[in-house]
Amino acid sequence: PRYLRWIRALLRVVPSLYREFRRDGLSLTWFVLPEAYVIGGLVACAARLSGPMIMSRRSLNNYQLNHPSIGRLERWLHHRLFLILGNSQAVVRQLTDEEGVPRNRLRLIYNGVNSGLFEPARERDAIRASLNISPDAFVMIMVANLIPYKGHRDLVEALALAREHLSRGWRLLCVGVGEKYKRELVAFAEERGLERHILWLGERCDVEDLLNAADLGLLTSHQEGFSNALLEGMAAGLPMVVTDVGGNREAMVHGETGYMVASNAPKALAEAIVDLSGDQQKRRRFGDAARSRVRNAFSIDACVDQYHRLFSAVVEGRIPPACEDLTLEPVATAGIEDRSSCAG
Description:
Elements: H1 2-22, E1 29-32, H2 34-46, E2 53-57, H3 63-66, H4 68-78, E3 83-86, H5 89-97, E4 106-108, H6 124-130, E5 139-143, H7 152-162, E6 171-175, H8 179-191, E7 198-202, H9 207-212, E8 216-219, H10 228-235, E9 240-243, H11 248-251, E10 258-261, H12 266-277, H13 280-297, H14 300-315
Parallel strand pairs: 1-2, 2-3, 3-4, 5-6, 5-8, 6-7, 8-9, 9-10
Helix pairs in contact: 1-2, 2-4, 7-12, 10-13
């Protein structure tokens, strides 16, 4: 059983972690992700760790709804940390508004990607041929594990609404693992008559090639912190259609790098897909702007530099600058041509 595996793992990890924390000379301890934070934070407190502790929150706190005890433990630990980092303004705001973290102990560092990895390494037509996709087909891609909150079911429903307006040989590439939920999604796609259009590719080591074989990137999540998959699609020069959740509106610009639609809204998603499917010039313009935005605002070098400067300041006893004002202007999602016929 899973809980027994957890107990055995804790019995191995906790004693060694406690001994490590009791050592002298630890200048900084950094916790990333909830499990590491709760386990490591509690052990650090028990060991009376003297050095500064920092935690990185990389998602919204929706997971606490199913695990309220985790939420209570995290809030107890928050007040024992030197700093808490978020990877989007949405995450940082939630930490202060809902979890009571003082703003002067919050910092914002965005994720970064290496844009050079997403330069085409293989011929586009060769990649498509390996998937039995014609060179002129309209191809969409979504890179996300098969988990209900990633919104694959919404996407299938949207494509069922949009299919009469898409070119005959269109394809959707779904990259990600999750065999249990996959069976449900495959059955749902078959009910909608879309089984021949959707390729469930599972885990892949050639995601960069697959992105470069596509015409449109998608991210239909119901929740996000700050999506690397979105940044990677943009780095590959894809126009993106994404849901307005978490930090997505901070990564992309609606109407410039793609379209943003409400989550849990298949009709709006269908309208955005149809609009871009029929306008190659707009797709190219949005894709070029997306690639430029990632290079200028979300490079891996800038991300690493910010972590290095912050950690150096903490170790040297300097207080790093607080994050800037986090007020966001509303992002308009209007402006996509009305295609109400998609509902039929």
